[in-house]
């Protein structure tokens, strides 16, 4: 899989997507990440990439030309399954969308800044608009990193234990049950007996019950769907 990220701040990705499991996925050749600085494509002699909004109002709008030229260049090189725009007014990101996107070959993720991009970029290039939640970030970069992480870890071979992604919270519509590791007794804080019983059927039933109880308490909305 190849992910192209279009941004005014490529250096914002130096941390989150270059560590741990994400780094391993890249090193193993399971995913290619490419970061493109939108400013490199502006034809403006002052390197401007934004302008005042028609109709007035506070905040700058990212101009069409550098984004359009960059997207056209990338599209001429290969086909893309999706051109995603990160924006708080997009559809809410959830595990179901991560699952679908993890099956793509090539995706582009466009990060907005300031008041966002000129609507005509959204109308003519963008195929999917994603929000990571009902709050406003300073730009789409952190949101793009979140979406990329959620997608990449689902690519077969990325996680060392292939089954672990399947037992994540949300994969079966429930939150995850609690987990414990050694020691079985930490200064009197004990692990539930059932987990030490060796009876896998009982353990599975306990986990299911715990997942259901947790979901009912913390996210009852998940049980309504
Ligand atoms: N850009 C700014 N806020 C955002 C959000 N909540 N989700 C996606 N992109 C954003």
TrEMBL record:
Annotated localization: Cytoplasm
UniProt-recorded Gene Ontology molecular function terms: tRNA (guanine(37)-N1)-methyltransferase activity
UniProt entry keywords in alphabetical sequence: Cytoplasm, Methyltransferase, S-adenosyl-L-methionine, Transferase, tRNA processing
Top EC class for this record: transferase
CC annotations in GO: cytosol
GO BP terms, alphabetized: tRNA N1-guanine methylation
EC identifiers of the protein: 2.1.1.228
Stored HAMAP family: TrmD
Record text on subunit structure and interactions: Homodimer.
Protein name: tRNA (guanine-N(1)-)-methyltransferase
Source organism of the structure: Carboxylicivirga sediminis
Gene this protein is translated from: trmD
């Amino acid at each position: 899989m190849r992910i192209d990220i279009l941004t005014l701040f490529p250096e914002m990705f130096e941390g989150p997507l270059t560590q741990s499991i994400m780094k391993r996925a890249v090193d193993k050749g399971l995913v290619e990440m490419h970061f493109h600085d939108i400013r490199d494509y502006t034809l403006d002699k002052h390197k401007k990439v934004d302008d005042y909004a028609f109709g007035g109002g506070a905040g700058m709008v990212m101009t069409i030309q550098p984004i359009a030229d960059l997207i056209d260049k990338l599209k001429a090189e290969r086909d893309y399954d999706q051109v995603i725009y990160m924006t708080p007014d997009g559809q809410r990101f959830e595990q179901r969308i991560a699952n679908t996107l993890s099956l793509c070959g090539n995706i582009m993720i466009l990060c907005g800044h300031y008041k966002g991009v000129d609507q005509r970029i959204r109308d003519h290039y963008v195929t999917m608009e994603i929000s990571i939640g009902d709050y406003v970030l300073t730009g789409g970069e952190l949101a793009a990193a979140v979406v990329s992480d959620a997608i990449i870890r689902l690519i077969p071979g990325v996680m060392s234990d292939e089954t672990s992604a399947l037992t994540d919270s949300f994969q079966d519509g429930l939150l995850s049950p609690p987990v414990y590791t050694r020691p079985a007794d930490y200064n009197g804080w004990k692990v539930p007996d059932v987990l030490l019983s060796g009876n896998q059927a009982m353990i599975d039933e306990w986990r299911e019950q715990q997942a259901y109880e947790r979901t009912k308490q913390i996210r009852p909305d998940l049980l309504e769907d």
